[in-house]
Amino acid sequence: MTDHRPTPAAALSRRGFVASVAALAGGFSLGFHVPFAGEAMAQDAATITPEVNAWVVIRPDETVVIRIARSEMGQGTLTGLAQLVAEELGCDWSRVVTEYPTPGQNLARGRVWGDFGTGGSRGIRDSHDLVRKGGAAARIMLVEAAAKGWGVAPGECRADRGVIAHAASGRTTTYGAVAVEAAKIAPPKDVVLKDPKDWTIAGKPVKRLDTAEKLDGSQVYGIDLTLPGMLNAAIRDCPVTGGTVKSFDAKAVSGMAGVKRVVQVGDTGVAVIADTFWRAKTALDALPIVWDEGPNATVSSATIAAMLREGLDATEAHVGNKGGDVEAALKGAAKVVEATYGVPFQNHATMEPMNATVRWTPERCEAWAPTQSGEAALAAVAEASGLSAKQCDVHKIHLGGGFGRRGATHDWLRQAVLIAREMPGTPVKLIWTREEDMAHGRYHPITQCRMRAALDGQGNLTGLHMRISGQSILASVAPNRMVDGKDPVVFQGLNPGGAEAAIGYTIPNILVDHAMRNPHILPGFWRGVNMNPNAIYLECFMDELAHAAGQDPLAFRLKLMGNHPKHRAVLQAVADKAGWGEKPAPGVFRGLAQMMGFGSYVAAVAEISVTDEGKVKVHRIVASTDPGHALNPQQIDAQIGGSFVYGLSAALYQECTVKDGRIEQTNFDSYPVMRLDEMPVVETIVMPSGGFWGGVGEPTIAVAAPAVLNAVFAATGKRVRQMPLKNTDLRRA
Amino acid sequence: MIRLNLNGVVREVDAEPETPLLWVIREQAGLTGTKYGCGIAQCGACTVHIDGAAVRSCSMPVSSVTADQKIVTIEGLSADRSHPVQKAWGELDVPQCGFCQPGMIMASAALLAQNPRPSEAEIRSEITNICRCGTYTRVLAGIKLAAERGEAGRG
Predict the structure, then answer these.
(1) ipTM of this predicted complex?
(2) A256–chain B Cβ distance below 8 A for any pair
(3) pLDDT exceeds cutoff 80 at A393
(4) Under 8 Å CB-to-CB from A337, ≥6 apart: which residues?
(5) Would you call B139 an interface residue with chain A, using a CB distance cutoff of 8 Å?
(6) What is the mean pLDDT of residues A413-425?
């Protein structure tokens, strides 16, 4: 039997899931013959109700099913996208539920749901128009169906909260009552979207749709999945990236409890398949494996640092932003200021370690995956399975955190497919231990930056050279997005202009360039991406320049921001709210920072103190963001608060160091995360200025570190230029 | 066979004695609300109650739990998400990805059972679970809200 039923998204609770798995179990007993077909998902999963269109199903009981193409990993995109559809649909918000179409269905229907990718804070800003039009088209069809039934003109009818009314005759009906007829109406060619000022659901601080299942353990994450007859796998990949498996002694563990198979995974990994994960892991721990670690085994943090230092002075570099003549400005300067900064590798450390469940047969491969990019996941499954994309599908499951780790690279999913190929017909769930997750991340790229600036006799900034040396994400992850050998992402927040990530200062002579130096440790998009280090480099150095010029750090910046009103507005907003011009409480010190990225403008003021023993305590953060449109202010508040946890955990504590070619940190004891005892008060200012759509999940992280580091200088007179801060001794001399 | 009192039901499970309680709960009992996050009692995603006290089940061998000890998991905290901590969490939209939240809720419920009106300083020092999404502000508010209602001594 063909089963193209969608995966309920917010509703993937245990009860719903049992029903869905029961249907699959029928598939299994019939040999799991699930040919891919183009008629996928033309009707609702739980009823026989036909969809009104790809985005909307209205059940007879008035439940409104809204389909969500992007992935929910905590950032609230699922609720936000549903708000946009519901706004144009004119339905009763309290009746809304959501579900995920699969990437296979998207492929079969000519990508009717558009892009599934959920990264770069693009979940909403790249699809608001598409989903709003989907909701509006469905409303028009529902109204037309009602009007047809009454024999009146659709223009005489109005829809509100799922009720259609014909004022002249006093007649009313509901969306649920006309949904079947609406499905037969030709979709409208042109739809007019509401003016955001008329919104009643979008733009409002509505509650999330996916909270209830997260309160009682019923939300199923990838790691929780259970399929009939499923086995479990644990894996160890060569600890040195680039190394391979030389040999392993399967016989040593094949008699252990629950063990079914010991298999090599590609050239680089070994997995144990057992009845339970714990037994698979126990056997894997006991399995003798000999690695050929290869030439990378001699690499260390020191050799990588030397490689990057060389790039700071290299004559060749890719130019990201150039204006005027920096060298001339430096030569003619009254004062030249120089400093070198650096950021380390950092692991995403999602709370839910990497995992995926796969069932493979020679004809069909299906995966159940917590992925940020359903379509990229489908491509990875097809490639690893040896089948065509049409013979494969991916069922998306809510992610226990993503932060960029689960979108651009599906190495973990590829492994799961290779393992499942060893057990045709049997679903196998692969789970990484935390230790495997720490050892095989796709790390925040390592870079250093040498800053050189020219100040004139009045303390004006006349020239700035930023030389970034280090790793490119795109060179590893998406070389097709490189431009003439240059990685444009490196310059995030430093670009001369544009709507995505422009620098907020006018500097007469500027050069920002990148000497690409790629160590063997693999990089990835890490929440905030290159905006994070670039904000540390630029905004800490601006603070250094203000002090070198004997000027207030806010006033020094504002002089350069006349042509950048949105950057300036968010900075002024935090300064005003934090009381920048007034003295803070005794022992408390302030720092500030601003940046633009992911289409949004952000700024922060941090208030901190430092103990005599050198311990930094962050008391209060005032943070502003202008994302153009604020779709759900209470969720933006949650994203901003969380951004400081992510950004400050990184700035204060986190580094992945390399010894003998491998990552040294193994778990949360050696890779600390900020906890509740250190959480500052975060006051958010959401100030949408309209006219554009920016992201909110990532931008704020960038200003967390520099705001705090600048406050640390105010408190101690010490500049922290190498992250994380824990490596700098801040004890009072 | 090992006998466990899990959410008020005594059941026998087939597991090696050194198997962590977490994995017995997840794999043998099939209760997946209790999460694996680190395996070394660092993150608290695996928090359950044993005789009312919060325990990190990933680092407790199942053989160290006796059949007369009452184990409660997130699934057994209430029948209908009605525990004061669950109610407060729902009202404040605390979870983001939600993966750490069963452990966070269990730790918070145990804290309030033992100390129904904790100070903010006590909450901050007692709740040491890790949340990578960074929900701490609302976790703090949620515990305060549940405590203010003064009905959190149960559970």
Answers:
(1) 0.97
(2) no
(3) yes
(4) A451, A452, A453, A455, A541, A544, A545, A548
(5) yes
(6) 98
pLDDT over 60 at A8, yes or no: no
Among the partner-chain residues A207, A217, A435, the one whose CB lies closest to the CB of B75 is A217
> What integer pLDDT is reported at residue A284 of this predicted model?
98
Inter-chain touch B136–A641, beta carbons under 8 Å: yes
The per-residue pLDDT for range A102-124, each reduced to its tens digit, is 999 999 999 999 999 999 999 99
Q: Is residue A283 within 8 Å of residue A330, measured between CB atoms? A: no
Identify the CA nearest to A418 among candidates A475, A360, A469, A343. Answer: A360
Q: B90: which chain A residues are within 8 Å (Cβ-Cβ)?
A: 211-212, 215
For residues A389 and A375, is the Cβ–Cβ distance under 8 A? no
Chain A (615-644) residues lying within 8 Å, Cβ to Cβ, of chain B: 634-635, 638, 641-644
3-state helix, strand, coil in chain A (%, to 5): 35, 25, 45
Considering only CB atoms, B33 lies closest to which of A217, A351, A435, namely A217
pLDDT digit string, tens, across residues B19-46: 999 999 999 999 999 999 999 999 999 9
For domain A314-346+443-727, the question of CATH label 3.30.70.20 is answered with: no
Domain boundaries, chain A: 40-211, 222-294+354-431, 314-346+443-727
Residue of A214, A227, A355 for testing the chain B interface, max B β-carbons within 10 Å: A214
Q: Which domains does chain B show, CATH number per domain?
A: 2-76 (3.10.20.30), 84-148 (1.10.150.120)
Quick: pLDDT tens for A20-77: 333 343 333 222 223 233 334 567 766 778 999 999 999 999 999 999 999 999 999 9
- On whether the CB atoms of residues A589 and A614 are closer than 8 A, the answer is no
Chain A residues closer than 8 Å to B28 by CB:
276
Q: Which class is domain A40-211?
A: alpha beta
Residue A491 contacts B where some CB pair is shorter than 8 Å:
no
Report the alpha-carbon distance of residue A562 to residue B99 in Å, rounded: 44
Q: Which band of pLDDT confidence, cut at 50, 70 and 90, is reported for residue A613?
A: very high
Residue of B7, B48, B137 best to disrupt the A interface, most CBs of A under 10 A? B137
Q: What is the pLDDT of residues B69-124, one digit of tens each?
A: 999 999 999 999 999 999 999 999 999 999 999 999 999 999 999 999 999 999 99
d(CA A620, CA A679): 9
Residue A211 in contact with partner chain B when CB distance is under 8 A: yes
Any B CB within 8 A of A28 CB: no
Assigned fold of A222-294+354-431: Aldehyde Oxidoreductase; domain 4 (3.30.365)
Flag if A646 and B135 touch (Cβ within 8 Å): no
What gap in Å lies between CA A44 and CA A62, rounded to an integer? 13
